[in-house]
Write a structure and sequence with these properties.
The protein is mainly alpha-helical and 394 residues long. It contains nine helices and two strands. Strands 1-2 form a two-stranded antiparallel ribbon. The two termini are 58 Å apart.
């Protein structure tokens, strides 16, 4: 009977042993690429949110400077004595903020020029109302330019979210422009009453232009805030912003009514315009901190969300590395097991009693004692003579 020979195990080829390692590397490479890209994108967004919050801090410091400059301008145009203490405090507070974050926002040069102009106003103290109006106009123009610079360098003008974009536009552009233009409109009505009749037409044109300059940003402010409330997912934005916004809107409507020319003469009452300007400025003083506070809260929430995303990215990366390490360990164990099986197969094919290839040949043993080598031919017994062929014939 023929006994079938046992089938030998198929040994994996070199490509078969290396292929799992290549697949593991191919899996780990895109995971590392995705991790690096996600880390970079979230890092960029986190840096942008942090820089925008610095811009909010700077705008918050510029708001008292704007109010104090407008009040000082009105006092100078009306030839009223002004202490300047409020303007000095506002400038010192803004200077401390600029010294802390102005280098990162690249606003130190502009702030230095603006501060020099403000201090020159206080030292000179122009007695001519017309000269005072022109001098303060130059300073407030520099102030509005600083607002634009801060919004640009902080990244607020490039904010990717609609609600925070409308809020920064309202607080950093619309409201300062409206406050400055409203103060100029009220001061020009005071100057118009003192100008000669020959300048009436020129004065009427200037008043009309300033009226548009004051009412246009106020209307843009209302539109921006309503758009921010409509596009925001925050439940606190609407109730916190709409109430002071309504107060500001009523004050602006009163200013528009009092600053409109009455009849064909085009006479405007300076006292009514001044009172409407004070009400609008007071409403703006209450509204701006609310807007900046809501904007900062949205940016802080966004930064916290990005930090969570980064932590999740790190956790996912660590988990991926652990899984790849586990797969590598399994692959290494499989390689070692295959090598042991190959060694066992070789021993089975040679036989269990076969000497190793490097072992020298030894004679067989008898009763546990080594057997001596014997010469070739018949074996002679000791003590017994051996008969040769001649003795046998004899």
């Amino acid at each position: 009977m023929t006994v079938p020979a046992p089938q030998a195990r198929r040994r994996p080829s070199a490509a078969g042993r290396v292929l799992p390692l290549l697949l593991l590397v191919a899996l780990l490479a895109p995971l590392a690429l995705l991790f690096a890209q996600s880390w970079r994108l979230t890092g960029d967004d986190r840096d942008l949110a942090a820089r925008e919050r610095l811009g909010v801090q700077y705008l918050r410091a510029l708001a008292p400077v704007t109010d104090a400059l407008v009040d000082a301008q009105s006092a100078a145009v009306a030839a009223r004595p002004a202490s300047g203490a409020a303007l000095t405090r506002a400038v010192e507070a803004a200077a401390s903020v600029d010294a802390r974050i102005g280098g990162e926002l690249r606003s130190q040069e502009r702030w230095a020029g603006l501060r020099a102009k403000i201090e020159a106003l206080g030292d000179r103290g122009p007695a001519d109302p017309e000269a005072a109006f022109a001098a303060y106009g130059e300073v407030t123009d520099l102030l509005l330019a600083l607002h634009r610079k801060v919004r640009e360098t902080s990244g607020l003008v490039r904010d990717p979210r609609s609600d925070s974009f409308f809020l920064q536009d309202a607080a950093g552009r619309d409201l300062p422009e409206a406050v400055v233009a409203t103060g100029r409109l009220a001061d020009l009505t005071v100057l118009a009453a003192r100008r000669p009749a020959a300048d009436r037409d020129r004065t009427a044109g200037e008043l009309a232009a300033l009226r548009v300059a004051a009412l246009a940003p106020a209307g843009d402010l209302v539109a921006d805030l309503r758009a921010a409330v409509d596009s925001s997912a925050s439940t606190d934005l609407g109730p916190n912003v709409l109430t002071p916004l309504d107060t500001y809107q009523r004050a602006v409507e009163a200013l528009a009514a009092h600053s409109a020319p009455a009849g064909r003469s085009g006479v405007v009452d300076p006292a009514q315009v001044a009172g409407a300007r004070l009400n609008a400025q007071a409403a703006a003083r209450l509204l701006q901190p609310v807007i900046l506070g809501e904007l900062d809260a949205l940016l802080a929430e966004r930064a916290d969300g990005l930090d969570r995303d980064r932590r999740l990215t790190v956790a996912a990366g660590v988990l991926a590395v652990l899984l790849c390490g586990a797969l590598g360990a399994v692959w290494l164990a499989a390689v070692r097991r295959a090598r042991r099986r190959a060694a066992e197969d070789r021993r089975e094919q040679v036989g269990p009693d076969a000497p190793a290839a490097d072992t020298p040949w030894q004679p067989p043993t008898r009763d546990g004692e080594p057997r001596q080598l014997q010469p070739a031919g018949p074996v002679r017994e000791p003590g017994r003579a051996q008969w040769g062929p001649f003795d046998a014939a004899r």
